[in-house]
């Protein structure tokens, strides 16, 4: 179900896809990525599917909504007209005004949901989200709630242009990610088995849940039903690759590493 954008606010002036802020009919402000963003409409599907899957796993992920931009709204705001924004269905994440990316000053020791960073790493591997472990801009810290919140899954799966052929070529291997963003969480999540709980959650997720996450995408985003069902198969198959991929991170975790040496 989509919601109506009722007022254009401003560009967010950050990121590759250059999202913009809108007030919507539910009274909330959303960070909206347009169908005609420079990576293409596929990233809107990626964001929405990743949100549904992340929520299903109980991970801290910003709420996403399909946002309808009408012709009247575009006509009302010259900035929208000049960007040639197509009317129709775009995608927004709920705007957290207090949110600061990890590029800013963040004292993680104050954070109260740090354990979920382990789930984030498991999730990124499962959905092939290579755009977080190095980019400290794809995780928000909310100082008022003392929580981390995942954003930006535009490059998940195989980026904006995945299709059935790409999935078939790459169905039995998983890239392993490690970088500065993940490293910051090591002191807080290291344990004899830091990822076990989340790996089990992914391994147990049923096909019906994945089908639900991939279904009902707006036609305007141009994902064929054949490609969508190949994404379901891809995700189902990858559930069993996560455990082995994460095992390769063990050396980065002193307590977990010790466990392997005993
Ligand atoms: N829901 C949100 N609340 C607050 N800030 C956000 C939100 N979503 C994105 N941002 C800010 O906008 C930037 C760009 O958004 P992002 O989703 O990362 O787009 P891109 O794919 O272009 O990198 C983020 O790095 C962050 O600073
Ligand atoms: Mg980003």
Key features of this structure:
262 residues; alpha+beta; Phosphatidylinositol 3-kinase Catalytic Subunit, Chain A, Domain 5; 2 domains; five-stranded mixed barrel; three-stranded antiparallel sheet; 37% helix; binds adenosine-5'-diphosphate; binds magnesium ion
Task: Please outline the helices and strands.
Blueprint: E1 2-11, E2 20-24, E3 29-33, H1 42-56, E4 64-69, H2 71-76, H3 78-82, E5 88-94, E6 100-101, H4 116-126, E7 139-142, E8 147-150, E9 157-160, H5 164-169, H6 180-183, H7 186-189, H8 196-204, H9 207-214, H10 225-238, H11 242-247, H12 254-261
Parallel strand pairs: 1-4
Antiparallel strand pairs: 1-2, 2-3, 3-5, 4-5, 6-7, 7-8
Adenosine-5'-diphosphate binds at residues 12, 14-17, 19, 31, 62, 93-96, 99, 101, 137-138, 140, 151-152, 154.
Protein name: HipA-like kinase domain-containing protein
Domain HipA-like kinase: 8-233
Organism: Paenibacillus sabinae T27
CATH topology of the largest domain: Phosphatidylinositol 3-kinase Catalytic Subunit, Chain A, Domain 5
Main β sheet profile? 5 strands, mixed, barrel
- Extract low-pLDDT stretches: none
CATH architecture of the largest domain: Orthogonal Bundle
Number of helical stretches of at least 4 residues: 12
Tally of distinct domains = 2
Radius of gyration: 19 Å
Cα end-to-end separation: 52 Å
Elements, N to C (H/E)? EEEHEHHEEHEEEHHHHHHHH
Integer average pLDDT = 95
- Beta fraction: 15-25%
Which ions and ligands are bound to the chains? Answer: adenosine-5'-diphosphate, magnesium ion
The main sheet orders its strands as 1-2-3-5-4
Q: Please estimate the helix content.
A: 25-40%
**How many E-type strands?**
9
InterPro entries: HipA_2
Protein name: HipA-like kinase domain-containing protein
Pfam families: HipA_2 (PF20613)
């Amino acid at each position: 179900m989509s919601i109506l954008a009722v007022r254009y606010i401003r560009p967010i002036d950050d990121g590759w896809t250059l999202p913009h802020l809108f007030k919507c009919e539910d009274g909330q402000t959303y960070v909206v990525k347009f169908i005609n963003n420079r990576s293409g409409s596929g990233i809107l599907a990626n964001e929405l599917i990743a949100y549904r899957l992340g929520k299903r796993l109980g991970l801290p992920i910003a709420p996403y909504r399909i946002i309808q931009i009408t012709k009247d709204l575009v006509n009302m705001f010259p900035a929208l007209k000049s960007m040639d924004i197509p009317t129709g269905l775009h995608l927004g994440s709920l705007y957290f005004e207090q949110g600061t990316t990890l590029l800013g000053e963040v004292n993680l020791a104050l954070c109260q949901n740090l354990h979920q960073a382990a789930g984030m790493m498991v999730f990124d591997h499962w959905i092939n989200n290579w755009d977080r472990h190095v980019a400290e801009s794809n995780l928000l810290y909310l100082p008022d709630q003392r929580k981390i919140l995942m954003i930006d899954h535009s490059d998940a799966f195989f980026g904006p242009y995945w299709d059935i052929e790409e999935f078939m070529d790459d169905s039995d291997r998983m890239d392993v990610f490690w970088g500065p963003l993940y490293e910051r969480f090591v002191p807080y999540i290291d344990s004899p088995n830091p990822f076990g709980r989340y790996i089990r959650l992914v391994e147990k997720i049923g096909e019906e849940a994945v089908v639900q996450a991939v279904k009902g995408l707006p036609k305007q985003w141009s994902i064929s039903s054949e490609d969508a069902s190949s994404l379901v198969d891809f995700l189902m198959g990858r559930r069993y690759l996560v455990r082995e991929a994460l095992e390769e991170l063990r050396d980065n975790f002193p307590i977990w590493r010790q466990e392997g040496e005993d």
